[in-house]
Amino acid sequence: MGAVVILYKPDLTEARALLGSLARQVDLVCVIDNSPLSMYSPLTLSEHGNLAFHHYPNNLGIATAQNEGLKQLIEAGCKYALLFDQDSQFETDFVARMTYVFQKTKRQNLKGFAAIGPSLVCAFTQEIVRPRIQTEIERFDDVSSVPQIIASGMMIDLDHLQQVGFKDDSLFIDGVDHEWCWRAREHGFSIGLALNIFMLHRLGDGRRKFAGIPFKVGSPVRLYYQFRNIFILSRRSYVPLYWKLRNFAVMPLRIFANSILLPNRMIRLRFMTRGILDGMRNRSGPLRENAKK
Length: 293
Known about the structure:
Elements: E1 2-7, H1 12-23, E2 28-33, E3 51-55, H2 62-75, E4 80-84, E5 88-89, H3 94-107, E6 113-122, E7 138-139, E8 143-146, E9 155-157, H4 158-164, H5 176-186, E10 190-201, E11 206-210, E12 213-217, H6 220-234, H7 241-261, H8 265-280, H9 287-292
């Protein structure tokens, strides 16, 4: 069992607690730090002999960083891989319980699950996150089949990774986890949600409401990838129709909210506009590469 943790300018106390907890629960932890200046080094993490630390100051993006970690776990002979962001919190028996649920699905001959994830508890509201639109497809004993899960807390069966493929590097960051889940389902696999295992997770940098609709608040540059990748993913046949319709329907509201209600309004508007234009041109990869064009 191995884990991949992606860091980007992390809170050192939170990240150290996460890495320490994981190091005690899995055989190998691959740490990918995308921060321009890393506060970590192999020496600062030397108290854990099963941590492999890698620093990429140019920022590989979430997809490429996860792929780097997954390849290392495969080379190390791991059967399962857990993916984590830096701001997730979980119990000391989290990995054991997730492994038990995953293996239980195999013993019960349920539909082949490519990955399962825990039920999320929002760090801002302390409430369990339950999707309103993309509801469960089928419920079993303690796991339900769902259209997609987020990357943090996702446990992947590495035997299925060769057929599904690695994460999509071209997306760079936003939509990477959902796209992989939809692609896995296109290949005949299921995506599971463990109903009785919970993980505290920070979704975005905050929460705001506009016209009664709650939305996540993130950094201005994330808006570029969010808007651009809506156009990129909408061209793909395996991406659910409800996702395409919902994102295009709320796009005007998101533009208004980010350019009127939030700080750095003009910066946000520029990133959204650039994302829309590059999405229409089907430009992918990191923003810095598209800026050169």
